[in-house]
Every structure is written in structure tokens, then in C-alpha cells.
Write a structure and sequence with these properties.
Elements (H helix, E strand, L loop, with lengths): L1 E5 L3 H4 L3 H4 L3 H7 L9 H11 L4 E4 L6 H17 L4 E4 L9 H10 L5 E4 L8 H15 L3 E3 L17 H10 L5 E3 L13 H6 L3 E4 L11 H8 L5 E2 L21 H15 L3
Parallel strand pairs: 1-2, 2-3, 4-5, 5-6, 6-7, 7-8
Bound molecules: zinc ion.
Zinc ion (ZN) binds next to loops.
Length: 272
Amino acid sequence: MDSHVHVFPPDIAGDRDAYLGRDARFDALYRSPQARMATAEEVVRAMDENGVALSVVLGFAFKDRGLCREVNDYVLEAVASAPARLAGMAAVSPGAPGALAELERCLDAGLRGCGELTFDPAESGAYADLAPLAECLRERGLPLMVHASEPLGHDYPGKGRFTPRACLDLAQAHPGLSIVFSHLGGGLFVYELMPEVRRALADVYYDTAAVAYLYDPAVYEVVAAAAGAGKLIFGSDYPLLPPDRCLVGIERLTAGDREAVQSGNARKVFKL
Ligand SMILES: [Zn+2]
């Protein structure tokens, strides 16, 4: 299973320039023609080539509610056309009017959570806006997926200020909510060795998206030792990286842990 795959409707993937000026974050991530975009059809083809049985696909949480809705409609359609191969997450912009209604619409239609959302902890109001969405997800037992970044190391497009400190604050503000912090939570897993932090992170998981781009393959053994393999979820960040790139290092885990990381943990968290 690959639990971190980005999809775009053909209209957006085929004409990205038309959308660049409409959303600052989309602009920052996709201005470069080298930043790859994939439609659901392309995702399924790549899954076949890479031996991936099931993918969790993510739309893009545009600030504009109309664009979020367009992306969510596409994700819903993609999941409906390949229910055995694709599960989907809702993309909503927490501060936008109607965000809660849009999330409810998507979850009622079968999407498995909300994300990947990106926050800037310096932006006032981000957490207040998130509260009703987090409560809705908690009640339904579905996860929130949040983009996390390392507080140090090399720079790259999308590296933000949502680092382990902000991740911990978010988890503490929403006890009982399942949260998947992408990109290994920016290194948060290390602090699970502190008993009080581990307690606060009881419902937190880490995905492996783009890890090959960030860490030495030994990192998976370190996550398993610090946080436990039960908290690690395989995701590639396709089409940024092909699925096999982030598998390097997983072979060092035990067979049982590999099964959990590549399927069991995600099935539990996304209720699949
Ligand atoms: Zn991300």
C-alpha cells in the first residue's frame, strides 16, 4: 500500500500555468515544470508497474473553496472508478467558508480522512480554524494528514515551519484525533523516547513520504526503535518520487514490521 500519492484533475495537471497565480502554495510547489503532477489514471498505471495494490490519493488543499471542491470531486470520481485500487482524502482549506460542510460531504461520500494539509504556525488563526474539522474527524475516527518539516538540514520547495514543536502542539490540542504527520513528522519520532511526549503522541503516526530525499535508509530502523513500527506508514510522495525509492531501508525491518508498515498500519488508520 502507498498512503501518500498526489493526484490532480487533468484540467489542472494539463494547464498548471493557469492556476499558478491563484494560490501561493500551489505556485511555490508547482511553478517548476520539473515538479511532476499525475492524474488518477497515471497513478494506477504506475501502481501496476511498481506492484502497489492500493493507494491513498491526496488532492491539493487550495485556499479557494471552489478549487478544493473541484479537486475533491475528482478524487471521489477516481475512487469510485477504481475502488479496489484507490482510497482518497479530502482537501479543504481550514479557514475557508464552508470548509466543514465540504469535509462532511467528502467523508459522507466515502473519503478516508483529510489531508495533506499544510500549516504555517506563524499564521494566526490556523489552529482555531482547524478545530471544527478536527472534531469532525475525531468523531468519525478518521485521520488528519499534516505536512511536517525538519527544523534543520537542506532546503527544498515545500520545506516549511511546521516542525516537531508545532506537530506536538497540534497533537496535544486534539487528543483522540488520529494524525498522520508526513515526512516522518520532521523528526518528531525521536522524542517518542521521552515518556511524556510518547503519551501525548498516542494517536500520532508517521508516513515515509519523500524520506529517500531526506534521510539515510537507516532511518526506518531508528523510527521502529524510537516510536515503534506500529506508527510507521509507507507512502512515497508519488509522483515526486517513485514508490521504490522510499522502500530502500524497509527491508532492514522484520517481516512482521514490514507488513505493518506497508499495509496493516494504514488499513487501521484509514479504516480500509
Ligand atoms: Zn508533504
